[in-house]
Amino acid sequence: MKWKQIPLGPLQTNCYLLFDEEKQCIVIDPGANGEGLIEYIEQEGLKPLAICLTHAHFDHIGAVEDVRNHWNIPVYIHENEKEWLLDPSLNGSARHPMQPIAGKPADHFIQEEGTLSIGPFTMQILETPGHSPGSVSYYLKDIETVFSGDALFNGGIGRTDLLGGDHATLIDSIHSKLLTLPDHTIVLPGHGLSTTIEDERTSNPYL
To answer: For 115-159, what is each residue's pLDDT tens digit?
Structure first.
């Protein structure tokens, strides 16, 4: 199993393509530039099975409808943000100089932590709110990797001054759900470079 990081949009939000040897693929946080993202996925011969969202801020969902409609695949999101895909005032696109994002509801709502299996992929869902109320991280034990969204960054943490954000909740999420993972776990954040749990535990100034 492998992954590819693709920064998209003006905020360079990391979209991730998780794929296996047969090129079946999970698309994580398709944030913008749907046409270009679709073209890249097709050039690579990947076969998307689903879209998994770490949360529903505008810079993480801008290409959801393009990708979903092109392959007719389901979208997964936490139920605490089930309205955010539909409402520009919730996902934040209404407050930015851009076309407001108002798509369709997700197909599947994450209600609790547990195992999520999609085709050959098995991911552990970790609820990591604080940056937003429905933020989740996806942990794949087999490849020792966690997709942390905007909860934990390389040398930083997510902002908490947006709708539903809470600093104390975010710090608790990071300490109780992410820093408890094995030290060598690769952290793939929503923005910026990858890191490891050990590096963030020992050197992140916010922790």
So the answer is: 999 999 999 999 999 999 999 999 999 999 999 999 999 999 999
Residues 167-207: tens digit of each pLDDT: 999 999 999 999 999 999 999 999 999 999 999 999 999 99
pTM of the model: 0.97
The CATH number given to whatever domain includes residue 113 is: 3.60.15.10
Residues across the chain: 207
How far is the C-alpha of 134 from the C-alpha of 53, rounded, in Å?
A: 10
Q: Where do runs of H (alpha helix) occur along the chain?
A: 34-43, 58-61, 64-71, 88-91, 167-173, 197-203
Sign, Cα dihedral of 184, 185, 186, 188:
negative
Using CB atoms within 10 Å of the CB of residue 110, give its burial: 0 to 12 exposed, 13 to 18 middle, 19+ buried. buried
Domain with 109 in it: 2-203
Structural domain count, the chain: 1
- Taking the C-alpha atoms of residue 83 and residue 152, their distance in angstroms, rounded to an integer, is 24
